[in-house]
Write a structure and sequence with these properties.
This protein is of the alpha/beta class and about 170 residues long. The protein has five helices and five strands.
Length: about 170
C-alpha cells in the first residue's frame, strides 16, 4: 500500500488529492482545493502554498507526491514563471519531509489516466470518478486534476515495477 498526494499547482487555486493504492486498486482518502489572495505578496502566496502542502503531507502520512509539470506557451509565460516558483517551493518542502516528488507532463497524466494523451478535461474527470469509485466527479476541477496526477503516479510506477520484474 502506498499513499499518494497529487497536486494541481497554481498561484491562485491549488488542487490536492490523496489516494491509497494497493496492488492495482485505488481508494480515495480526501481531496479539495485552496486559494491564495491576489492582494498578498507573491512570496507570501508561495510560502502559504508550500506550507499547506507540507501540512497535508503530515496530516495524511504521504509516501510520495505527484504533481503536474508546468508547460509554457507564448501567451502564458508570466503566469507559468510564477507557477514554476510554486512548483519549486513544493519540491523543496517535500524534500525537507523526505517525501519523493514526481513531476509529470499533462500528456503523461492524460495517457496514464485515460489511455489517450489528447483526452479532454471531461474524459479525465470521468476516469478519475470511475477509477476511484466515486458517485460524482470530484469538485472543484483543480481537485479532480490533482487526483488524476496521483493516479498517474500509481499507474506509471506499477508499469515501471512490472518492466523491472520481466
Amino acid at each position: 500500500m502506498i499513499r499518494i498526494l497529487g497536486i494541481d499547482p497554481g498561484l491562485a487555486d491549488i488542487g490536492w488529492g490523496v489516494v491509497e493504492k494497493t496492488n492495482n486498486s485505488y481508494r480515495p482518502i480526501s481531496y479539495g482545493a485552496f486559494k491564495t489572495k491576489s492582494s498578498d505578496l507573491l512570496q507570501e502566496r508561495i510560502f502559504l502554498i508550500a506550507n499547506t502542502v507540507g501540512l497535508l503531507c503530515k496530516k495524511y502520512k504521504i509516501d510520495v507526491l505527484s504533481m503536474e509539470e508546468i508547460y509554457f506557451t507564448k501567451h502564458s509565460v508570466i503566469s507559468a514563471l510564477n507557477v514554476s516558483k510554486v512548483v519549486g517551493a513544493i519540491v523543496y518542502e517535500t524534500k525537507k519531509l523526505n517525501i519523493p516528488c514526481n513531476l509529470f507532463t499533462p500528456l503523461q497524466i492524460k495517457t496514464a489516466v485515460t489511455g489517450y494523451g489528447r483526452s479532454d478535461k471531461n474524459q479525465i474527470q470521468q476516469m478519475v470518478k470511475i477509477l476511484l469509485n466515486l458517485k460524482e466527479i470530484p469538485q472543484p476541477n483543480h481537485a479532480a486534476d490533482a487526483l488524476a496526477s496521483a493516479i498517474c503516479f500509481g499507474n506509471i510506477s506499477s508499469t515501471q515495477m512490472r518492466l523491472k520484474n520481466d
